[in-house]
Amino acid sequence: MVDEKGGFRVVACEPCGFRHVLPLPSERELSELYDQDYYSNEKPLYIERVREDLDWWRVVYRERFEALERALGSGRRRILDVGSGPGTFLATGAARGWETLGIEPSAQAAAHARDELGLEIVEAFLDERSARELGTFGAVHLCNVLEHVPDPAGLVALARSVLDPGGVLLAIVPNDYNPLQRALREAAGFEPWWIAPPHHLNYFDTESLPALLERAGLDVLERETTFPMELFLLMGDDYVGDDALGRACHTKRKRLERTLDAAGLSGLKRRLYRALAELGIGREIQVLARAR
Question: Which of 16, 17, 87, 149 places its Cα 20 to 30 Å from the Cα of 262?
């Protein structure tokens, strides 16, 4: 056992190759958690905050689509966004000429994507039944999904099954138990704030996520992290549990990245985040992989 919180144990599972909680919630419990409650109770300000951050998100999403387009070349431009949320990622793709489809279990988020953004959304979890009905895609986007599901290996296999030959998958998850988190815990007295069951069931890092994709029949093309927000904590800005301070720190991160983009230095930022990934540092890990 690695940690314990709220009646859940975090274990380093050798067969799985990543850390996860025990006991795992049932399918019924997860359905109740995400169908109606997630955006209402767990993330009541999420859609509002997405609107506030939209200029920054457009840069982030543009860069993701540029990575997908580099990998696919001149091939098919059809993408499935698994856990599509309020739809802003897919809206960026649609504006770039992609054919888009989202699958999202939250009624509130799916309604926003359909009614506000005019997107096609399947209101469901990705499972064997829904996968058979969706068709195939040149790309699949899995952002902040794998940490929530009881069987991430099974979900990656399903995502792999809907890819065209040579199609690509972009997976993004929190980078947990990373070196900066360990420093804060061991030398600054922080409790492991990143442990969040029953919402976060799995805890990946810069090694375990690429390994998960490789085991599912995907070859890793690119690996990078996102800005290491733990730097603020190390410098004394304790935003854990402080929403206002957290937003202030996030605003600084946005300013940094938007300034680099405006200066035409997005490539420099990408090289920086790839170098940080080699050190295991960054708040999220982002891996682009191609189906064998």
Answer: 87
Summarised one tens digit per residue, pLDDT across range 12-35 is 999 999 999 999 988 888 877 776
The position carrying tokens 């809907």 is 162
Over residues 144-200, the pLDDT tens digits come to 999 999 999 999 999 999 999 999 999 999 999 999 999 999 999 999 999 999 999
Q: What is the pLDDT of residues 58-106, one digit of tens each?
A: 999 999 999 999 999 987 799 999 999 999 999 999 999 999 999 999 8
pTM: 0.94
Angle of the 243-262 helix axis to the 266-278 helix axis, nearest 10: 120
Nearest one of 204, 193, 138 to 171, comparing CA atoms? 204
What domains, with CATH codes, occur in the chain?
27-178+185-226+283-291 (3.40.50.150)
Annotate 31-67 with b (16+ C-beta within 10 A) or e (fewer).
eebbeeebbeeebeebbeebeebeebbbbbbbbbbeb
Q: Are strands 18-22 and 202-203 parallel, antiparallel or unpaired?
A: antiparallel
